[in-house]
Specification:
- This protein has ten helices and 15 strands.
- The chain has 356 residues and is α/β, with parallel strands linked by helices.
- The chain folds into two domains: 3-215, P-loop containing nucleotide triphosphate hydrolases (Rossmann fold, 3-Layer(aba) Sandwich); 228-355, 2,3-Dihydroxybiphenyl 1,2-Dioxygenase, domain 1 (Roll), CATH 3.10.180.10.
- An eight-stranded mixed β-sheet has the order 9-10-11-8-12-15-14-13. The chain has a seven-stranded parallel β-sheet with strand order 3-2-4-1-5-6-7, with helices on both faces.
- The longest helix is centred in the first third of the chain and has 14 residues, at 41-54.
């Protein structure tokens, strides 16, 4: 598979397409790299990539960044941070935006990791957003989870140990040339037996030891992905800004993504709610489906969206059973591929099914 072909497949998967038929399982090790902001995750991934390449190993990087509120794309893109590897055919780097997903990953992160493993890469490094103690989804997708910390965190280590601290297979204390490294190691040793390594990623110190550890690790037998999971609850509102007076100001929910979906004639705001999301829908014109819904029923729950592992297979089952689909699969808010099923054949509920 050429780099150009792999790039095209990666774009398709990120936009909601399934993995290619007949893709080999591959033998590469999927490594999750997570930790709080400022720990140097990107520098560590960059240095580790260089070390693995010196050892003749191929590396794919899935770098997950927050979404730009303006464009929905990735910000702080690791394409810039890891630019020294772009002339290396043994390295493939993909930056991607969370697109409103919580848990530290984008919705297509796991599928991209499987794509790169199937393409024959020896190591697949997934760098999470790393914005808080609940960014732990990577542990369910990786063979090895590396938690990156830095000296001087002190009480912060205690504060986050119920989250990302508990998923570590390996701790890396980066920036270990700073004061407080011994204390940081004692804090970690206080409640875990996971190995701890020290690094200074920007000059390569300790990186060889991290590579040695990873090369000794076997692949896990990961559980299969769930076939169904609630993605979001769609709520029709007259005005998103007015609705946010309740959701944001009173409930304290945050807006992860706002965008306009022209072909649906709707403005959308996504608010993470645990593993799912609230999707606020405001009509752009009087002839849109949301405007007609509000005219008939008033603001309220418009639809329920479910993620499925194989949208095409589900569509085939539904059509064979006589279910009425409201048009062919399309691309919606956040870039996902979806299809609606008419309430008449779905117990009175308008269902949206989304390719996971």
């Amino acid at each position: 598979m050429t780099v150009r072909e792999l790039a095209r497949l990666a774009t398709a998967v990120e936009n909601g397409a399934g993995l290619p038929a007949g893709l080999p399982e591959g033998n590469g090790l999927i490594v999750g790299v997570t930790g709080p902001p400022g720990a140097g995750k990107s520098s560590l991934v960059d240095a580790l990539t260089a070390e693995l390449r010196r050892r003749g190993r191929t590396v794919a990087v899935v770098a997950v960044d927050p979404s730009s509120r303006a464009t929905g794309g990735a910000i702080l893109g690791d394409r810039v941070r890891m630019s020294r590897h772009y002339a290396d055919s043994g390295v493939f780097i993909r930056s991607m935006a969370t697109r409103g997903a919580s848990g530290g990953l984008a919705r297509a992160s796991a599928a991209l990791a499987k794509l790169f493993r199937g393409a024959g890469f020896d190591f697949i490094l997934i760098e999470t957003v790393g914005v808080g103690q609940d960014e732990i989804d990577v542990a369910g997708q990786a063979d090895v989870t590396v938690v990156v910390l830095v000296p001087g965190m002190g009480d912060e280590v205690q504060a986050i140990k119920a989250g990302i601290m508990e998923i570590a297979d390996l701790f890396v204390i980066n920036k270990a040339d700073r004061p407080g490294v011994d204390r940081a190691e004692r804090e970690i040793h206080g409640y875990t037996d996971a190995p701890i390594l020290r690094t200074v990623a920007i000059d390569g110190t300790g990186i060889a030891a991290v590579a040695d550890d990873l090369q000794s690790r076997p692949r896990k037998s990961l559980p299969p992905a769930e076939a169904f999971a609630i993605d979001h609850l769609g709520i029709a509102v007259r005005s998103i800004d007015d609705a946010l007076a309740f959701y944001a100001s009173q409930l304290g929910m945050r807006v992860a993504l706002r965008e306009t979906v022209e072909h649906e004639k709707v403005c959308v705001a996504m608010l993470p709610a645990g593993e799912a999301r609230i999707e606020l829908l405001e009509a752009l014109s009087a002839d849109s489906a949301i405007a007609k819904f509000i005219e008939k029923r008033g603001p309220g729950i418009h639809h329920i969206a479910m993620r499925v592992s194989d949208l095409n297979a589900l569509i085939a089952r539904l059509e064979s059973a006589g279910a009425k689909l409201l048009g062919p699969p399309r691309q919606g808010a956040g870039g996902h591929t979806y299809v609606f099923v008419h309430p008449a054949g779905a117990g009175g509920v308008l269902w949206e099914f989304i390719q996971a």
